[in-house]
Specification:
By secondary structure, the chain is mainly beta. The chain contains no helices and 31 strands.
């Protein structure tokens, strides 16, 4: 036989005259052990196995696949299968000759730092990279309506640099990002979120500028006033947030005690004497432009004289304490007074119960140029059902004015 292992008889190696005995065989003019491959093993059968040249087994070192029984030489090892993936190998110490997933890449994975790729021992084909949610630097932040994104891996080995942006609606309260709507009580005005519930410059979701007669902002609506301080002197802010002259006490027995010009020319509920002697005046005790007062004066009309007065019949309770008062002005020619006559008759007709009227003088003589208050306390006689109040000049020489007249169960309560 030539180039291969022989057997124990004949003329091995094409030789004659050589006789080998025992466990030997003829080879190239001599005798060699039967387990020896005559001439050496090369090519596709480089391994001598019990005197026969055969291919390499799995796990054996190799140079080419032709040397291996499997036909595959990978990583310098006869391998069970082709094994060229980035994250697989056939020469691992624990499974030599078998292609398995490994954590050491064939060539270095791309990327740096936290974001660099790696072999995870599962994916054979390629490097695995951290997800795009993995932080590789500063966390996201939002302050002063400016948001900055977090530094995150891009899923391909690169750390994405943070970016900043202005927040149109400001920062969220529950996350470091821009909000998508304005906070409660605010709206977008002029490119930024501002209070629209109480700021007159931008009131309500339409960002209205409150002005004119509704110059205040309350709960997102333009109103005339929020408090009495928003109104003119002598006015109050009503529950409907409108300025009006100070309303009389609901317990005041006298109607139209402040001379409302919308009621009978200012004398609604009152019975004045002639218009020459008793007139409505815009001079109000509170200085309220929507109210006024009663002006009385002595007037000589031909053969007649009018001392200037006005009256009203009001209901009262018998045997009850009341507070009686008003504000007045007067010149130095006479004294202003208001007096009460008590009646059982509902129209203040017939004879009064009292023989002398309860008269409330100013207590001052001479000129009183500033509005001045005067008051007293009374108890109604038994049987009282009504009282007539009459305000007038005491003697008839000169003039004066009355305002905020009250007959009330509450003290000094116009």
């Amino acid at each position: 036989m030539s180039g291969g292992g022989g057997n124990g008889g004949g003329s091995p190696g094409g030789q004659t005259g050589i006789v080998c005995t025992g466990m030997t065989k003829a080879c190239n003019g001599g005798c060699v052990p039967n387990a020896t491959c005559c001439g050496g093993c090369t090519g596709n059968t480089p391994v001598c196995s019990n005197g026969t040249c055969v291919a390499r087994s799995g796990g054996d070192t190799c140079v080419a696949g032709t040397e291996c029984a499997t036909g595959v030489c990978a990583d310098g090892i006869c391998c069970n299968v082709a094994c060229g993936g980035q994250c697989e190998a056939c020469n691992s110490a624990s499974a030599k000759g078998t292609c398995v997933a490994v954590t050491t890449p064939r060539t270095a994975c791309t990327g740096t730092g936290t974001c660099a790729g790696h072999c995870d021992g599962s994916n054979r084909a390629a490097c695995v990279y951290p997800a795009t949610t993995v932080s590789c630097g500063a966390a996201a932040s939002c302050a002063s309506s400016n948001a900055t994104t977090a530094a995150l891996c891009n899923g391909a080995g690169v750390c994405t640099a943070p970016t900043s942006m202005a927040c149109t609606y400001g920062c969220r309260t529950d996350a470091p990002t821009c909000d998508t709507t304005c906070p409660s009580g605010q709206a977008l005005c002029g490119g930024s979120c501002v209070d629209v519930l109480s700021t007159a410059a931008h009131c309500g979701n339409s960002c209205t500028a409150c002005q004119g007669t509704t110059a205040k902002c309350l709960s997102g609506s333009c109103v005339q006033c929020v408090t009495g301080n928003d109104c003119s002197t002598g006015q109050v802010c009503t529950i409907n947030h409108a300025c009006q002259c100070r309303p009389p006490s609901p317990t005041n027995a006298i109607l139209n005690p402040g001379f409302d010009p919308s009621l009978g020319g200012g004398f609604g509920n009152w019975t004045p004497s002639t218009t020459y002697a008793t007139t409505f005046s815009t001079d109000d005790a509170d200085g309220c432009s929507g109210s006024g007062s009663a002006h009385v004066a002595f007037a000589a009309m031909g053969m007649n004289k009018d001392f200037g007065k006005f009256s009203q019949c009001v209901p009262l309770s018998s045997g009850t304490t009341y507070y009686f008062g008003y504000k007045f002005k007067q010149d130095d020619g006479d004294t202003n007074v208001c007096e009460l006559w008590f009646y059982t008759d509902l129209l203040c007709a017939g004879s009064p119960i009292n023989t002398d009227a309860v008269q409330l003088p100013s207590g001052l003589s001479g000129a009183v140029t500033a509005w001045t208050a005067t008051s007293t306390q009374i108890s109604t006689p038994a049987g009282t059902g009504r009282a007539q109040i009459t305000c007038r000049m005491l003697f008839g020489a000169g003039s004066g004015a009355f305002d905020q007249i009250y007959l009330n169960s509450a003290a000094n309560s116009y």
